[in-house]
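Worked example 4.2. Below are the chains of a multi-component assembly; read each line carefully before continuing.
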Amino acid sequence: MKKLLVGILVVSILLLSSGIIFAAESIDSVQTDTDPIVTTSNWPGFSED
Amino acid sequence: MSGTTIVSAEKYFVEAERMLEQKDSMAFMENISYASLLSSNETKLYSKVIFFKAKGLFLLREYDKALNVIEEALRYNNGDDRIRLLKYRGLIATYRGLFKEAINIYERVLVETDNIELQTEIYINLSATYLAMYRTYEEDKKYLDEASKWLKATDTYFELLKKDVNKKLICINYGEYYYLFGNIDKAIEMQEQAIQYCQEGELPEVYNNLAELYVMIECLSKAEEYLREVELLGEKYHNNLEIAKGFYTTSKIYLLNEEYLRAVDSLYMALDFFIDAEALPYAFKCFCKILEVSKQFDNMCVNSLQKGIKGYFKNTLFYEKM
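Applying the procedure described above to all two chains together yields the following structure tokens:
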């Protein structure tokens, strides 16, 4: 019984930590190359053609 | 074999043009990438494709990617196209607030062309950059003088210009210059002059400028007239930025009439449209204004309540404490 509980505990810890690692990977993989000044035509008076 | 390749590349190129018009960034990138890949063996077509890729990325505000492609496109393009590519580089610097770098680029470009239309476009951008510098750097007058110098440079060619859009920009920038200089009547005159060079979809921008100027001289009926047009045309052309600016100016009219709650309502509408238009600096300014007006309204309520009930406590200990 005790071994079973320890087993469940170890498996839970493993699952939990892999979840954390997975989450961290997804955050890292988010694209961050978008321009910091994302504007439409916020600059009137310029010739863009 | 070579003929088939060109046809395929051109097909993707035409589709990319269509996607850019619709501002569909993903589809544009997909098509222009195929076009550049398929045309890589045909220098003439490739130079056209790579130029358009740079232009598209610039117009879609993908500045980092645009700068890389401009670099590549400059190797394949000469003459007017080269000047345009350098102009995009200058504009990216301006939009990033790197004004001095932008001015250096524009001034270097000027000596490379004798095309009147292109020269004027560079004059326009130089004047607009100096106006932006004046607004950004604590209103240092020397920037206003520089703006005036480049605007005057456009005077010589004004009548010869083929593109109405350039005439419109010159009038708008003159209007902005006179507004910053403090000559509101002249600013109104220039903005009204800009109307004749606008296509219908461009009118909301000029009408908003005029509404703002008329609010400044407290000619509110005229301002409201223009703001109604802004709303109608803004909706017709899905121009959320100008609709937002219109609501922002409407809030100023309410504030002049001390209608605080209506002013706040207008500001919230403006905020929504600024966010829809991804005009984040404007949205931030608008949000600050909402807080400012709300606080102003709270203070007015407290003062008015205090005045209202103070009279009931005359000759009591509470009178002085209120």
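Take a moment to check your reading of the output against the notes. Chain B has a mean pLDDT of 93. The interface with chain A takes residues 58-59, 61-64, 87, 91, 94-97, 121-122, 124-125, 127-128, 131-132, 163, 165-166, 169, 172-173, 176, 205, 241, 277-282 of chain B (CB under 8 Å).
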